[in-house]
Amino acid sequence: MFCINCGKELSDRAKFCYFCGTKTGTETDAEAGKIKTEEKSIQKTETDLQLEEWIQKGKQELLYQHWEQANHYFEQVVKLDFECAEAYWGFVLSVNQCRNQEEFIAKYTKEEGEIQREDLEAVDHQKNVEEAVKKYEVRGFLYEEKIRQIFLYEKDLHYSSEVLFREKQYERVKEVFEEDQYLKRVFQCAEGEFYRNVNQVRQRIFFVWEERLSRAKKQEKEQLKVIMEDYDAFLAQAKEKTEQEYQCAVEQQLSSYTEACRYMKEGQYAIAIARFEKLGDFKNSSSFLLECQQYEQRKNPMSRVGNGFIAANDSDIIIGSQNRNYWGNDYQPRKKSHSGIWKGLGIAAVIIVIIFGIGFYQLEKEGRPYVNFVKEGHPNSYPGITYEEAFHSFFSNPQWYYFEAETGEDVVEFTGNCLYYEKEVEATIQFVLDYKNGTFETYAFELNDIPQSKLEMWALVDRIFEDYQDSWN
Fold first, then answer.
1. Contact, 468 vs 388, CB < 8 A?
2. What is the pTM of this model?
């Protein structure tokens, strides 16, 4: 018989080519499965006896831990019998410095170093939060911050796992049996009882690592169960609460839209504009907002510039600018008729201060009814809320003053501090009174002594009363 790969002549019983290692194709199905029936006993030749002697000597050297000498005997065996599985097994033991198969099993099931554990997250909570924000946020009514606060989970969602570590260990062991050339030859050439023996060694090693991996997975599953039971309960509650907030916000949104449409119909465009701006793109709020702005501009030919200011032209200023713009004579804040009493003070300063103190007390006493008249008043759209309640809730350091303007009008001036684009500013609002007829109007509005438009003033007043109303709902 000749090798089908290299063409060398072989014996008729050869299963592999002695020269290139190619299978000859003479194996039966039973031989391919590595389990053969006992062959008929044949007379041992002198070569067979020599091979047995070298194998026994190699095993003896293994017991003495003479690894190189053991290798020498196994090499002699392979030179004569290229398919001797026992010789290849001897190579495996000597290379791994194991005296027998029990030491080989112990070596490949031994724990080396510390067990490495991964810090894993049981669930992507941030993803659930982002989905909730996207689903439930209602512009102007249910804010992202409120949703995030509801979904704030303070418990730790992390756990430690050694599963990946065990999986990598098991894979490394399996790679040894798949890639080690001597071990591959052992399982290629072994048959009968010897095959069953070495296969049992492999199974015992694999079984140990499978057990360790199984325990690690069980521990991981138990940790996840404890974490997820609590988290699922929290998530259900958070979703239920957010759903309630969402339904309430939707109702408020619809109500606000209805009110904005009513203000628009009544011609109260400044209030309608503030409402439609808050509603954003809800229904047709955007188109109604544009329509209200156009109507308002016809009444007051100004255009919106900067960050929310109403200005007459491009030279108008933002808070903090050094230049003041021209606002027109009919919109100048009223000046106090007694503002010039401080000019020309000299040596008689003390006397004048005393006189002024007495006069100021008398003025304050006389002006108290006017101040109370404004404090106890209310806008038509908020009949149940007084100016004093709303302003004192919105502003810090609120102050009320009365004076008679140069034009002879009775004026009540309010000052207070508030935040404007995250910066604290001083707001001044003037009310011109028709005390005899029992009416007054919001007349002028300044931020840090810089006049603002009437549209901005109306929007602010509406915002103040709306916030106060919402705080009591």
1. no
2. 0.49
From the list 397, 398, 411, the residue with the least C-alpha distance to 363 is 411
Q: In angstroms, rounded to a whole number, what is the distance separating the alpha carbons of residues 39 and 80?
A: 21
C-alpha distances (whole Å) from 268 to each of 92, 261, 271, 390, 458 are 95, 10, 6, 20, 10
- Are 373 and 433 within 8 A, CB to CB? yes
Look-up: residue for tokens 């003041």? 324
pLDDT band (50, 70, 90) for residue 281: confident
pLDDT at position 353: 39
The residue behind tokens 């106890």 is: 376
Q: Residue 145: is it exposed, middle or buried by C-beta count within 10 angstroms (0-12/13-18/19+)?
A: exposed
pLDDT at res. 336:
56
